[in-house]
Design brief:
about 130 residues; 4 helices
Length: about 130
C-alpha cells in the first residue's frame, strides 16, 4: 500500500511539473507578437531564426523573458491561398515594463540581426493576455 501511494504521488508530481512547463501564458501577462508577412520575393530562414536569432534574443532578455515560441506558416485559410505569414514569434513577459527594460538596451543588436534570416520588415503587436 505504501508503494502504491508513493507511485501515485510521483505520477501527480510529474503531471504538475509538465503542466507548469507547458503553461507559459497567464492572464495579465504581456505577449509580444512578431509577424513576418508573406508576399512575392520574401524570404525567411527558419533554421537561423529558431536556432540562432530567438535563442540570442532570449539570452539578451534574460530573466525578464518568461518564454518564447515560434510558429512556422504552413497554410492559408483555404488550400488555394498562400500562407499569410511565413513565421510568427512570441515573447512572453510578466509586464510591459519588463519587455521595455529588456528590449531597449538590446534593440540595436536584435534588429541588426534581422537581415541574417529575412528580408521582411516584421510587424510587432504588444498585447495583454486576457484568457
Amino acid at each position: 500500500m505504501k508503494f502504491q501511494s508513493i507511485a501515485i504521488l510521483a505520477v501527480i508530481l510529474i503531471f504538475v511539473s509538465c503542466q507548469q512547463r507547458t503553461s507559459h501564458s497567464e492572464k495579465g501577462m504581456v505577449k509580444v507578437t512578431i509577424l513576418y508577412p508573406n508576399s512575392d520575393g520574401k524570404t525567411f530562414n527558419m533554421d537561423y531564426y529558431s536556432n540562432k536569432h530567438m535563442p540570442m534574443v532570449a539570452d539578451l532578455m534574460g530573466d525578464a523573458l518568461k518564454h518564447y515560441a515560434i510558429d512556422k506558416g504552413i497554410g492559408g485559410r483555404t488550400p488555394d491561398e498562400p500562407i499569410p505569414y511565413l513565421a510568427i514569434g512570441y515573447l512572453y513577459f510578466d509586464e510591459l515594463s519588463a519587455y521595455q527594460n529588456a528590449f531597449g538596451p538590446n534593440a540595436e543588436k536584435i534588429v541588426g540581426d534581422i537581415p541574417n534570416y529575412t528580408n521582411i520588415q516584421p510587424v510587432i503587436q504588444i498585447s495583454e493576455i486576457l484568457e
